[in-house]
Amino acid sequence: SYELTQPPSVSVSPGQTASITCSGDKLGDKYACWYHQKPGQSPVLVIYQNTKRPSGIPERFSGSNSGNTATLTISGTQAMDEAVYYCQAWDSSTVVFGGGTKLTVL
Amino acid sequence: QVQLQESGPGLVKPSETLSLTCTVSGYSISSGYYWGWIRQPPGKGLEWIGSLYHSGTTYYNPSLKSRVSISVHTSKNQFSLKLSSVTAADTAVFFCARGQGWVTAPTFDYWGQGALVTVSS
């Protein structure tokens, strides 16, 4: 079965750029999307179709996908961005989620 | 504004069938999109269970397919989940969500608040 691998944790200082990776076999040939989830809340879509932002998501969130890696980039990271981030893709008629990355804003 | 709300028993006995319903407001299920279930064991990540289209077309996670059934009730604007032969490993928060971009780029754009289901005798 298809697997998506994310680092368990990423730390960033306020105002700096955070990058969270998601790796999978030939992931660049598929569409990736990203969610963030804060404690006790439902996931929120922040990037879809590799690079698109839903309405209401700040411009500091951006995405890319090439080769075997999709990347979520948060520019000018704010304290409110602290959350767990999940990538997700579609393979063989199956939705696959990455294991999640805890973003800590120190 | 699209809203989804999960409902159902919060406690299920081992070997029994877990049943949940998702009520959708602000959008008619029969108008389109896919509708799905995702679960999250306490302290762990997200796992897709399955999704369906209002016509009845379904997609299931292969790891759960033998135990899962998702159906739609368009007259009530609801869809439901049944997971049979549950064990403690099925204890999780269950989310219902709307899926867009099926089949090329599935994404869940609206989510319910989640319902905790505990499997215990």
Name the features.
heterodimer; A: 106 residues; mainly beta; six-stranded mixed β-sheet; 0% helix; globular; B: 121 residues; seven-stranded mixed β-sheet; four-stranded antiparallel β-sheet; 11 strands
Overview of the structural elements:
The complex is a heterodimer of chains A (106) and B (121). Chain A is 0% helix and 46% strand. With 106 residues, chain A is mainly beta. In chain A, strands 1, 3, 4, 7, 8 and 9 form a six-stranded mixed β-sheet that branches. A three-stranded antiparallel β-sheet of chain A has the order 2-6-5, with no helix packed on it. Chain A is globular, with a radius of gyration of 13 Å. With 121 residues, chain B is mostly beta strands. Chain B has no helices and eleven strands. In chain B, strands 2, 4, 5, 6, 9, 10 and 11 form a seven-stranded mixed β-sheet that branches. Chain B is globular. At the A-B interface, strand 3, strand 7 and strand 8 of A face strand 5 and strand 10 of B.
The quaternary state of the protein chains shown equals: heterodimer
Question: How many E-type strands of chain A?
Answer: 9
- How much of the polypeptide of chain A forms β-strand, as a percent range? over 45%
Strand share of the residues of chain B? over 45%
Helix/strand class of chain A: mainly beta
The N- and C-terminal alpha carbons of chain A lie at a distance of 36 Å
Nearest-integer average pLDDT of chain B = 95
Q: Main beta sheet of chain B, described?
A: 7 strands, mixed
Biggest interface pair, counts: A-B, 23 and 25 residues
What composes the largest sheet of chain A? Answer: 6 strands, mixed
Helix content estimate of chain A: under 10%
